[in-house]
Amino acid sequence: MLSFQSSKNVLSLAEDLLFRIYELLAAESDRKSFRLVCREFRRIDSLTRRHLRVIRIEFLPILLRKYPRLQSLDLSACPRIDDGVVSLLLTRVGRGSNSPSLGHWAWGLKSLVLSRATGLRFSGLEMLTRACPCLESVDVSYCCGFGDREAAALSSAVGLRELNMDKCLQLTDVGLAKIAVGCSKLEKLSLKWCMEITDLGIDLLCKKCVDLKYLDVSYLKVTNESLHSIASLLKLEVLGLMACPLIDDVGLQFIERGCPSLKVIDVSRCEGVSSSGLIYVVRGHRNLLELNAGYCLSELSTALLHQMKNLNHLEVIRIDGARISETSFQVISANCKSLVEIGLSKCVGVTNMGIMRLVSACINLRVLNLTCCHSITDTAISAIAYSCRSLVCLKVESCNMITEKGLCQLGSFCLLLEEIDLTDCCGVNDKGLEYLSRCSELSCLKLGLCTNISNKGLSYIGSNCLKIHELDLYRCTGIGDDGLEALSNGCKKLRKLNLSYCNAVSDRGLAYIGRLEELSDLEMRALHKITGVGLEAVAVGCKKLADLDMKHCEKVGDSGFWALAYYSKNLRQINLSYCGISDMALCMVMGNLSRLQEAKLVHLSNSTVEGVELALRACCARIKKVKLFAPLRFMLSSEILEILHARGCIIRWD
Amino acid sequence: MDLKERVCGELQKEVPKGASFTKFNTQHQQKWEDPSSTSDYSTRIEPPFQAFNQTSQTQSLLLCNNQIKVPMQDGSVNDLLQASKIQDWDPSAMLNNLSFLGQKIHQLQDLVYLIIGRKGQVLGRPDELLVQQQQLVTADLTSIIVQLISTAGSLLPSVKQTLSAATTSLGQCGEFGGVVFPSSAQGLNDGVQPQNAGGSKVSELPNSVDITSNNGNEQSNHIIEEHELKDEEDAEEGENLLPGTYEILQLEKEEILAPHTHFCTICGKGFKRDANLRMHMRGHGDEYKTPGALAKPTKESSSEPTIIKRYSCPYAGCKRNKDHKKFQPLKTILCVKNHYKRTHCDKSYICSRCNTKKFSVIADLKTHEKHCGKDKWLCSCGTTFSRKDKLFGHITLFQGHTPAIPSDEIKAAPAGTSDGATNKVGSVNFNLSYVSSESEVQSSSMDIKGGIDDAVGYFSPLSFDTCNFGGFHEFPRPPFDDSESSFAFLLSRSCNYSQKSGEE
């Protein structure tokens, strides 16, 4: 009580001030520290918290009780949620509870992410939508079983504004019609890969949901008829038509005359679209901000270029795979001065001169994709570095002629650089990495197949680029344990690491990896030197490890797998193919890791059929995807296969 | 000649019998529909009954359509005809034919006795078996009558040269059955013309002819007529003939409702079309078989300039009535007939399958019956559609209407997954969901929410951690929707009926 009376103590702050302080904490880790201070702070946290992403479904009831004012609930990380869980949550945690603070968790909920919740069916969704009257945003993407009945259940959420139904494979026009009629306030809708949707459904949608601002019909087999309907949407700003094989220039003609608010259009990989179709779009929409036409143009024609002169507000253009001339760059840079991102991946005709002309005027470029533009050299990189000081992302995969000189320019001028892809650039060496390490904001670095880099180069990165969270060292054979030591000392925020085929890495190196507490994604294929000791170090140290690929790590023994089964409780995906794991260890790994969803178990040299069968039985309740050796199909009991099938597990036979 | 007279006399004697028989047939058919309209009976044993209903109906339809075909299938007659084709006329063959005729007439008599006997029984108690037997008897009878006529025709010595030609043409008629007629229906527009031209003649004909003297031949006409009639009526909508440029004819109600417009001057049999009458006339003698007698009379009349004739509906106040302000004339007599029946008559034909749809034109009923039950596209308001685009058009039009999801989706699921896992994983749940969907069907309002409420009520206590329900639903759905939709698509392409069920 003394501490409360002391005027200088932070705890004496009034509640509203604490609320304000809490609001200013942006990072999740900071908020975690805040709520760990004392009970009062935790109470502030629990009363203020709006967003919750649940990792383990077991804690969901407690968490929902703890945070009564949630507005956004993300359940995408616990795909085990099903109708039974929902009904329990609503009856026990909600209305059935006697304490007032426990109830009504669903009442204020505005956003619900149910991505990959394959177990949730119409009855569960029906209960949820009924319990959440304020629901505005729902994400049911990748719920493969989501069909018309589920759509009907969801359509009772009349206030819905945003809905993501990507890859809801069972959804047909009928379900879409349910949504369109029920949720007429929809502003954002994504229907990627909903393969059953046809023109009829889109037509009805466009007539019923006139407020749509964002519509993504990528990968659908819709025709120009749909574009005719879509053209009537007056408020549409973003239109995704990626890889729609049946639409062509005639359909884009409708877009020319319609969609007056259109800002962003994506027609990439549309086989039927040519430059004349894009001319229609560009002619009708002078205020276009983003044009994505990757892999649908054979060349950037002069007629299209002529029309593009009018796109003075254009910020993003992607013309991947097209043939482009040096004069085209001149025209683009002269007219599209506000360009922020340009994608020229696999474009033919991208030269140093072209790039120099482009960046001479487009000084605001932040994202530049030059993947597979083989003819560019340090000259182009220098020009980019000198002109585009605010460059954030540069992708120069397979540009073999880039050397340390180019990286030196980047390290000198582009200090905001966050992401650089140097995969397969064999000109990159330790000296180059030293220059590059001056970009201290770097968070994503891809150095795959750069065989000329060694531990020394990596140590520059480890000592300077402290914000790095993704590092790709695929087949960097010059990298050894010492490099990893330097890395683990500096890059504490590393989340994703690829060490595949770095043959020199041994158990000592993995011990350093074990110091990276944030690491969630580790790929270490074919590390022949590592044994169970190394794996144990990783399992013990990397508590957040969710995805582990250790294919062809043949020397790892059971001790390592036991450790894995014991410590890596957050593991979601594992690849154990070609590993010498025994039956017992396999059962332990598969049975003990309660978050495991996907496992690849091909060519396990020390395992028997019975072992695999037992392991599958141990995890059949939660596993969603498993890859097995093809002959096992006839050796495993039909019972376990049926059970897996019934639980919605996808089995891939290899 | 006395022979011919005798044959004619016999024929005339026979025909009324045939007529009375068909009269019975229609009566019996109507009676047949009755039990299905009583709801309690149909709901109790609906599936078998419906199935039976379907088959027997199509059977009877087939029989009616192919009446001419029947003697051709009969071996003896075939032989007979062939023999007469090959040989010249000789008394022994004549005697053969005569004795054959005698036999057949005796059979006929026996059969009629049989029918009279059965009829009493049937009236007492409508048994399904009896009904079926009766239909068989009916079919036999029909075939015998036709055989009689054809054999009688072959008896005449003067026929022998043209006989082979006649039999082949008859054979064609018979063999193609319904097929021949549609192809001839192509020229129906032409065929209608003479009727129009002879509008006054039609009205002069006596209307006192027995209305019930329906015949299978005429029924097949029905089916052919329906399509182009509808088309004609539709096509005629856009026509803009200036008033005064055409002649307006108005038939009286009785004339419109009379089943036939063309009557045989010898036997009095009625026909809907002149072409059919001409075909019929061939049986009455040689003089009707000349190309001149068989040719269409249109060609003669087409040489002189014809005044355009349009028709007015006798119903006062109707838009099709000539006194109406915005009078829209009807193009042909057939249009008049169908318009009058559809608009101003009782809808007395009830669909035996759904027991809800009523029609005044039997062809409309037949069209509907072809699709009845196939209307899988369902709106939340209860309206059904045979085509998806029609349903979506309806939903676009009406605020708040949504497509209803077919409730048999769940029922179909276990059929698709025939492995044992169904039993293992969710047998209990399956039963429950089955029940709920059943109740939905019975309520027929197709309120899905109600069904779900039931399901939730059942599942909520036991589904947690056992996950049976989820497990069951993880099964891949059978491609029910796909096949159905593609089927519907095919249907919509193959027959261009405008399904009116929803829009009416």
Automatic annotation (TrEMBL), chain A:
It comes from the Eukaryota. InterPro entries: FBXL15_LRR, Leu-rich_rpt, Leu-rich_rpt_Cys-con_subtyp, LRR_dom_sf. One of its GO terms (cellular component) is SCF ubiquitin ligase complex. This is F-box/LRR-repeat protein 15-like leucin rich repeat domain-containing protein. Gene3D superfamilies: Ribonuclease Inhibitor. Residues 130-277, 302-411, 490-596 form the F-box/LRR-repeat protein 15-like leucin rich repeat domain. One of its GO terms (biological process) is SCF-dependent proteasomal ubiquitin-dependent protein catabolic process. SMART domains: LRR_CC.
Automatic annotation (TrEMBL), chain B:
Residues 262-289 form the C2H2-type domain. PROSITE patterns: ZINC_FINGER_C2H2_1 (PS00028), ZINC_FINGER_C2H2_2 (PS50157). Residues 205-220 have a biased composition (Polar residues). Keywords: Metal-binding, Nucleus, Repeat, Transcription, Transcription regulation, Zinc, Zinc-finger. Transmembrane segments: none annotated. SMART domains: ZnF_C2H2 (SM00355). It comes from the Eukaryota. Gene3D superfamilies: Classic Zinc Finger. It is found in: Nucleus. The keyword Zinc-finger applies. GO terms for biological process: response to acidic pH; response to aluminum ion. InterPro entries: STOP1/2, zf-C2H2_STOP1/2_C, Znf-C2H2_STOP1/2_3rd, Znf_C2H2_sf, Znf_C2H2_type. Pfam families: zf-C2H2_STOP2_3rd (PF23115), zf-C2H2_STOP2_C (PF23118). One of its GO terms (molecular function) is zinc ion binding. Residues 190-220 are annotated as: Disordered. Its main location: nucleus. This is C2H2-type domain-containing protein. It comes from Gossypium barbadense.
